[in-house]
Amino acid sequence: MAGRSCRLTGREPGSGRNVSHSHVRTPRRFAVNVQDRRYWLPSERRWVRLRLSTKGIRTVDRDGIESVVARLRAAGEKV
Fold first, then answer.
1. Where is region (Disordered) located (predicted)?
2. What local confidence, expressed as pLDDT, does residue 4 receive?
């Protein structure tokens, strides 16, 4: 997954339509709130950069960076 997607949750942009006052419908995208974050990985004594959605950031805060990195590696992601 590249671009505006979360490495942890897999969230990607959705699509829909803008509906104007006259009810004319035009296509639009719902972008994901993706942010680049740096986390200190104590076991490896280095920083890791992750591109996460806000839900992914809350997941790291809840579960801890060690378990999240282990989960990403088990899924085959390079961290």
1. 1-24
2. 87
